[in-house]
């Protein structure tokens, strides 16, 4: 009987071979790689958000020149209802006013027609201040008055832009370790807890930054539209920039949810080795039964000689 028990233990030990453990935890491996892939997607689109509009005048036909939060069209800043508006608009252009200004995370760019001619130097914690920009570009003594509601919106832009800038960079920095460390959850479910916290912080910062940016520039757009009777400024939100932001946020949120599920779902390699969980049943197909049957069969074969000897002695 002891020999049979030993063979049973040997059969169970054979189920813990590395090849079987890997097959039993294949589902967890798939989800871990999916988590890394989602955070990689999030990082790629975050990079596109952060490099958008940087040195766009040097890359006029690249993605950077078309990725911006908001674009202001000042080519007809004086409404047509004002007498001699065409002449005044041409004079404003002569004084140094550009046709459009587009805003990125680090700087702004300007140009005439549809061509970006120049960009400001990238700065950390940048915020778009059109009043300062226009006064610096117009000739000495020339001024342009903006309605009070636009000035009030700029106060919001100043505060929100700094939070947006910090959150986007923090989110990108947290995404990198989330990509590299997510596969560690394959080995033990204990690793899923700190990785889930890390993934949550990455998803939270990226999503909050996206919400702040979306709300801020939508409010700024509405403030400009409300002053259409005073100044005729065309406003266009950057479709690519908004798409990139929300894709990055969505991928990060999905990555966090999958990482969170790994805390309680899917057996890890440590679970399989210690016998706490078996993992995928397909990994054991044809092995566990064979091992148990083999051990039991060997035990019965050893018992047969004893039964035969007793039968012979009784016959005599």
Helix-residue proportion: 55-70%
Oligomerization: single chain
Mean pLDDT value: 77
The amount of beta strand, in percent, is 5-15%
Order of helices and strands: HHHEHEEEHHHEHHH
Strand order of the largest sheet: 4-3-2-1-5
Q: What's the β-strand tally?
A: 5
Largest sheet: 5 strands, antiparallel
Structural class: alpha+beta
**What is the C-alpha radius of gyration, as a whole number of Å?**
34 Å
Kindly, what is the distance between the CA atoms of the first and last residues, rounded to a whole number of angstroms? 28 Å
Tertiary shape: elongated
Extract low-pLDDT stretches: 288-305
How many helical stretches? Answer: 10
List the helices and strands and how they pair.
Elements: H1 2-14, H2 18-24, H3 26-51, E1 70-73, H4 85-94, E2 100-103, E3 108-112, E4 115-119, H5 130-137, H6 148-181, H7 192-226, E5 234-237, H8 239-261, H9 269-274, H10 288-315
Antiparallel strand pairs: 1-2, 1-5, 2-3, 3-4
Helix pairs in contact: 1-10, 3-6, 3-8, 6-7, 7-8
How would you describe this protein?
With 316 residues, the protein is an alpha+beta fold. The protein has 10 helices and 5 strands.
What are the salient characteristics of this protein?
single chain, 316 residues, five-stranded antiparallel beta sheet, elongated
Entry summary:
The protein has ten helices and five strands, in the order H-H-H-E-H-E-E-E-H-H-H-E-H-H-H.
């Amino acid at each position: 009987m002891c020999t049979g028990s030993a063979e049973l233990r040997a059969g169970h030990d054979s189920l813990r071979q590395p090849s079987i453990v890997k097959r039993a935890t294949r589902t967890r491996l798939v989800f871990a790689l999916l988590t890394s892939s989602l955070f990689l997607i999030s990082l790629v689109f975050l990079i596109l958000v952060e490099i958008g509009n940087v040195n766009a005048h040097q890359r006029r036909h690249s993605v950077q020149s078309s990725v911006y939060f908001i674009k202001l069209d000042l080519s007809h800043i004086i409404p047509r209802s004002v007498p001699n508006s065409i002449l005044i608009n041409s004079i404003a252009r002569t004084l140094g006013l550009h046709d459009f200004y587009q805003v990125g995370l680090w700087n702004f760019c300007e140009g005439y027609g549809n061509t970006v001619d120049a960009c400001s130097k990238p700065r950390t914690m940048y915020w778009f201040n059109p009043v300062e920009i226009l006064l610096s570009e117009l000739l000495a003594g020339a001024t342009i008055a903006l309605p009070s509601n636009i000035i009030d919106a700029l106060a919001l832009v100043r505060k929100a832009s700094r939070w947006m800038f910090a959150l986007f960079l923090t989110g990108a920095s947290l995404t990198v370790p989330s990509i590299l460390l997510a596969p560690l959850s394959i080995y033990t479910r204990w690793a899923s807890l700190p990785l889930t916290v890390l993934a949550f912080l990455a998803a939270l910062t990226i999503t909050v930054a996206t919400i702040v940016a979306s709300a801020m520039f939508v409010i700024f757009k509405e403030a400009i539209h409300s002053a259409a009777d005073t100044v005729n400024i065309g406003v266009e939100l950057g479709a690519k920039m908004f798409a990139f932001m929300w894709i990055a946020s969505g991928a990060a949120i999905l990555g966090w949810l999958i990482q969170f599920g790994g805390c309680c779902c899917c057996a890890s390699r440590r679970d399989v080795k210690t016998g706490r969980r078996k993992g995928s049943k397909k990994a054991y197909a044809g092995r566990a039964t064979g091992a148990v049957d083999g051990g039991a069969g060997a035990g019965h074969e050893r018992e047969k000689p004893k039964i035969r000897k007793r039968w012979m002695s009784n016959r005599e």
